[in-house]
Amino acid sequence: MKERLQKIKGDTLEKIEKIGDLADFEEIRIKILGKKGELTKVLRGMGQIPAEERPAMGKLANEIRAEIEEKLEGKRKELEEKIKKIQEKKESIDVTANPQTVEIGHRHPLHQTMEELEDLFLSMGFDIIDGPEIETVENNFDLLNSPKDHPSRDRSDTFYIDDKTVLRTHTSPVQIRVMKSQELPIRMVSAGRTFRFDEVDDTHSPMFHQLEGLVVDKNVTMANLIDTLDMFIHALFGKDMKTRYRPHYFPFTEPSIEVDVSCFDCKGRGCDACHYTGWSMELLGGGLVHPKVLENCGIDSSIYSGFAFGLGVDRITMVKHNISDIRLLYENDQRFLEQF
Ligand code: FA5
């Protein structure tokens, strides 16, 4: 019995020394001290040894058990300390480490222009209104006095959803929505996406952006329109920018105009970019709101008049940043976009 106890003690202390983790620890503890453990079995077998040897053997067995328990407890503390250190190392923050650089983006140049335009018109006393990109044919064409046979209504020019619904071809239907629902006088701008079946080239995209402007009040004249447009063009491009107002035709304005600004490259002297005309590409259309459109919205055209305009936001962005091709605005090449 004595030899057996000494062997258990020797083997166990050796194994405890080699314990590497808590799983090993638990395995060894159960193997020796568990219900069916080696030492437990010996202690349970005490009753079978001669009575005179029992006290000495019992004392030895208890001493060995206490020694093993003490060693195990020491090992447990050592393992827990080790785990704590690993955990602390994992969770600690090295304040001297190089910070990871996070690339912060910015608004797309088209949105920058749109916001700049909105701020400008806001400062001139205009309200900012939102309009839907999916419109009724009635608002997009009929109520804007665009006749049934107008080419812009053709299926080859317009994206139809069904016979009564289109992807709006311009922001002008917002005029109808506002005139029908708001009290007079009206002074509003509305910017957003527009869609046309246009062939893609350097100045045309099938999806582009417009900003609509509308003023309805008593005694509104062409002079008010031209003054407002001059003010915004000079605020956006600088006082030296020249403007040219050309007569034009829109079904919903009468009279109608189109507006050009001097070429940004040569400032009007004539160069390759402007084909030696001195003028940039066409930027916007406008005019006095057609009396029929006012009447369509329930406004008495013998008392009220109005002006309206529609700017091409993409083209204004191109002139502003000297961008030669509209496609660059839609390719999302970061090397291009990060310049703005
Ligand atoms: C219109 O869309 C009228 N609704 C503007 C208007 C509003 C007139 C209120 C009178 C009163 P237009 O089709 O010319 O007009 O387009 C206006 C501007 O949008 C153009 O001057 C141009 O700058 C821009 N634009 C037109 N088509 C495209 C296109 N495919 N890609 C990029 N820009 C375009």
Spatial order of strands in the largest sheet = 1-5-6-10-9-8-7
Shape: rod-shaped
Structural class of the secondary structure composition? alpha+beta
The total count of strands amounts to: 10
Mean pLDDT: 92
Task: Give me the number of helical elements.
Answer: 11
- Can you tell me the residue ranges where pLDDT is under 50 for at least 5 consecutive residues? none
Helix content: 40-55%
Keywords:
340 residues, alpha+beta, binds adenosine-5'-[phenylalaninyl-phosphate], seven-stranded mixed β-sheet
Describe this structure in words.
With 340 residues, the chain is an alpha+beta fold. It is 40% helix and 19% strand. The protein is built from eleven helices and ten strands. The strands form two sheets. A seven-stranded mixed sheet has the order 1-5-6-10-9-8-7, sandwiched between helices. It has a three-stranded antiparallel sheet with strand order 2-4-3. A hairpin with a 2-residue loop joins strand 7 and strand 8 (253-261). It is rod-shaped, with a radius of gyration of 43 Å. The site of adenosine-5'-[phenylalaninyl-phosphate] (FA5) has 24 residues, from strand 6, strand 8, strand 9, strand 10 and helix 10.
